[in-house]
Structures are given as structure tokens and as C-alpha cells.
Design brief:
alpha+beta, Arc Repressor Mutant, subunit A, 2 domains, four-stranded mixed β-sheet, 7 helices, 4 strands
Amino acid sequence: MLTPEERQEIEAELPRYPQKQAVCIDAMKIVQRHRGWVSDESIRDIAELLGMSADDLDGVATFYNLIHRKPVGRHVILLCNSVSCWIMGYERLHQRLCKRLGVQFGETTSDERFTLLPIVCLGTCDHAPALMIGNDLHVDVTPDSMDQVLENYR
């Protein structure tokens, strides 16, 4: 069930769009901001509010890789795996992250602090390799500087 606050925030977005269904991505982002992820129950509730089927909304949710359909850690690490990042040291960074965190892509650390996910591009190819933690972009990352970046989220 959507909380009154979630429902109010979603309804506040409705006047910005010509059709209710167009609010679906914003609605899922609102729920995710409050809960950390978007459950099947949330999908059903949002779909009902927006007058669409849960299957259609789930199709939208699974298309966008920034909508989390299962629980994630407190900090989601998006590691860019674009060509520029590959050339500039992505593989070493990926290996170091996996070893340091004890997880692979799609997994969450045992303390539920970090979830590691790949992302196709962070749009900062001139400062590759790059990663994003939450809303914080980190560029020109090396395996050694990445250790310090992680410490800021402990």
C-alpha cells in the first residue's frame, strides 16, 4: 500500500503530464526514494492509481536499470562499463571493488551497505573510469582512490 506521503507526491506530479500513465516513472522513483526499491505490491498500487495494468508498469520498471525491483544496499554503486572506462582501467577497478566488497554485480554486501551494479554510461568519458554512489559522481577513479571513496560511505 502506498503511504499517504507517496500518494501525495505522485498526485502532485499528475498536472505536469497530459496523461496519468505518463507519471509512471516519476511515481516509481518516488516510491524508490522512500523505500529503497519498488516491490510487486508497489507496482500494483502505482498501476491502480495511474489507471494502467501492473504488467505494463512492470515492463517499464524492468526496462529502466535505475528502478530497483529487489532490495538494494543503503548505497548503490554504479560502475560504468563503457568503452572509455574499459580503456582507462575499468577491469582493474571492477576486480578491486568485487574483492573489497566481497560481491559480484547485482549483489549486496552482507552488512547491506553496498549494492554493486554495472551501468552502460555515466556521461563522463573524458574522466574515465567513473562510478556513481547514490547521486555522487566519482571520476578519474583508480583502484587506490576508490578505496578512499568507499571510506566516505562507511
